[in-house]
Design brief:
265 residues, globular, single chain, 11 strands, alpha/beta, three-stranded mixed β-sheet
Length: 265
């Protein structure tokens, strides 16, 4: 059963908030952790793990190991994959015609079945969550919006009805990456426009409008959030009714970060 959804950023500033907005955001992330402390497993979708343009990824490796930090921040740890749940998701996607790949490394099981976790997609959200088994998924940017939404709908069916476990879905996402002229991507007004729109859709319960966001705005805003939000917020929410509890936004550096907590109605 799906108990709720957490939209969680993966920027270093949430670990040591430099301003009041980021402190409010970190509080939302801690609240997400408390709300989901009793779940049996997480399903986490990450934009910064294995990158495939036209296939969704389902990580099947048994052990998930911290590997890649960011800007000198290392977050050690090891998590275990809920492999039965991962197999259900993968099989359901394949049977539904969703382009998906099951991913292993070195060995299919045992101590050498290991997969790296990165700062961005996984390790920072996991700092706010009690350690549980999890399933790691990756989005794909070249799949059509319709395919991503269908993937979310199928995923919602699995999370809601395919297991007796209590499951939380975690969407790891940062938003526009061109908020600062001194940042690596410079300044683009579209980053502000995209972030403002995303927060309006979240706070006004208008996420069904996600597919209407123009390609040009997405391309110029440089987010790493849109595709997994379509899978989760545009798809799973069609299957499982949820309500927004709280949200927050901060932009202390060149990229925008948002947190939001939804629980089932």
């Amino acid at each position: 059963m799906l108990v709720g959804i957490g939209l969680m950023p993966h920027g270093n500033p949430v670990l040591d908030p430099p301003d009041e907005e980021t402190k409010k955001l970190a509080k939302v992330l801690r609240d997400i952790g408390r709300e989901f402390s009793s779940v049996d497993a997480y399903v986490l979708i990450s934009p910064h793990n294995v990158r495939m343009s036209d296939h969704l990824g389902v990580i099947m490796a048994q052990h998930l190991i911290s590997w890649l930090g960011f800007e000198g921040v290392e977050l050690p740890g090891e998590w275990e994959t809920d492999r039965k749940l991962a197999e259900k998701i993968y099989n359901a996607w394949k049977e539904s015609g969703i382009p998906a790949v099951d991913l292993h490394f070195a060995s299919r099981s045992g101590q050498y079945s290991r997969w790296p976790l990165t700062w961005g997609g996984e390790l920072i959200p996991l700092q706010f969550l009690e350690k549980k088994p999890l399933v790691l998924l990756t989005p794909a940017r070249r799949l059509s919006r319709e395919t991503l939404i269908k993937a979310g709908e199928v995923l919602g069916e699995i999370l809601e009805g395919g297991s007796e476990k209590k499951i939380a879905f975690i969407v790891s996402a940062d938003h526009g990456h061109a908020h600062d002229e001194n940042g690596p991507y410079g300044y683009r007004k579209e980053s502000e426009e995209y972030d403002r729109l995303i927060m309006e859709l979240i706070n006004e319960n208008r996420l069904e409008e996600l597919p209407e966001i123009p390609d040009e705005l997405i391309e110029k805003a440089l987010p790493d959030s849109y595709w997994q939000m379509l899978i989760m917020l545009g798809g799973v929410m069609h299957r499982v009714p949820v309500k927004l509890v709280e949200s927050a936004y901060a932009c202390p550096t060149y990229f925008g970060m948002a947190g939001a907590l939804w629980v089932r109605k």
